[in-house]
Amino acid sequence: MDKISSESENFQRIVGKTMISDLPDDLLVQILLLVPTKDAVATMILSKRWLSIWTMMPTLNYEDSECKSVWQFFNKSLKIHKAPVLESISVHLGRECPVDEDVGKWITNAIDRKVRRLDFKLNWSAKPIKLPESLYTCNTLVTLRLSQKILVELVSQSCLPSLTLLDLKYVVFKDEDSLIRLLAGCHILKFLHVKRHIEDNVKNFKVKVSSLEFIIYEYDNYDNTGYIRGSLVIDSHALKKIIVFDNSGDSCTIENTPRLDKASISAMCYLGDKFMLSSLIIFDVLFNIGTVKCCTTINFSQLVECRIQPFDFDWLEPLMVLVQNSPKLKLLLIDQTVGINENLPLSWNRPSCVPKCLLTHLEIFEWKEYGGRSEEKELIRYILANSRCLKRVSLSMKSTCDLEDKEKMMDELKSMSRISNSSQLTDTLLILNYYYLARIG
């Protein structure tokens, strides 16, 4: 009680004791939305005028996940909350949440009041809990975020006619059918973010949502001892952007995506034959033995920007095949911050014909963690000698090189002949110094 009194005194000092209480209820509610929910609730003891103002707030946030009292505070405050419509409710409960509490009852409460945005993270010490079935038939939900100790179990198809954003982080599915039933009822879903762990009960993860425009899929499984290989299949006709991070070794297939124009693929697996990427404009890829076939057999007729991250294989010649298949490429980035193996042999042979993009389009070439190996030098020499439209070449030297070696390598590069008189060679990366995925998302 002393804490609440102190908080109310602070609030009084901030807003003053006179004029503010004369404002209309609607405006006072808007003011309370600017402060944390617990502070808004504390204003109820200021005066009779303030007693019920906070109960009309359309947005509630309870995110003190490690506080022992947050669950009790949440329970009590929700019981006296009066807003007929809940625009948004966010609840993050940590390990201090009592395991015998019925955490599903507040979800039912929120659904009864036509909640539009719901964010529930449960990280208690008990097993994952099944949420009320009414959650998956809520016709007002626009955004749904579920995290951690939550069991997604559906015995029939969901019906979420307003849902446009679905975010699932480390949840557990009853079975693969529950995943299929959940997605099947999301007819206008635009954005899907999935972050998985190995014990989520799904071997074959299939996303078939015709309205989906952007998907982020993350499966971080470094310790895959005894792991049975599965698959990822994405089939979404409206898909425009995709980010995949998957080191599980599962197979990966993207099909029926004629509108896909931006993709970031970081996968330690063999990409399927139906991997449709020919419409891409921006492409970010972990260039490894599993992705190389896809990257060297597709005609990237629309590709303008490409970042490759070579990983533990002989990559120089496959890169030139990709460049050969990308006639409109303007921006080529090589990022060697991962997977550098200095003992791995590299092969270099000049292409039989100059790639069209070098003659007509390539303007920017950047290389991060350039090592100065003879084969790498030949690649740069070839690009400088054949890129007629080149405006800027930027390189950062390998971090293990000392200053003298870096200066020597830069002098060697500057001495190479260039067909483009307007090209500049610098050691300042203008694009790779930023998080490249921002260009995707």
TrEMBL record:
SMART domains according to UniProt: FBD, FBOX
Membrane-spanning residues where? none
Residue ranges of every copy of the F-box domain listed in the record: 23-63
Origin: domain of life: Eukaryota
Signal sequence, renumbered to the chain: none
InterPro entries tied to this protein: F-box_AtFBL13-like, F-box_dom, FBD, FBL13/AtMIF1-like, LRR_FXL15/At3g58940/PEG3-like
Domain FBD per the UniProt entry, residue ranges: 356-428
Protein name per UniProt: F-box domain
Q: Which species is this UniProt entry from?
A: Arabidopsis suecica (Swedish thale-cress)
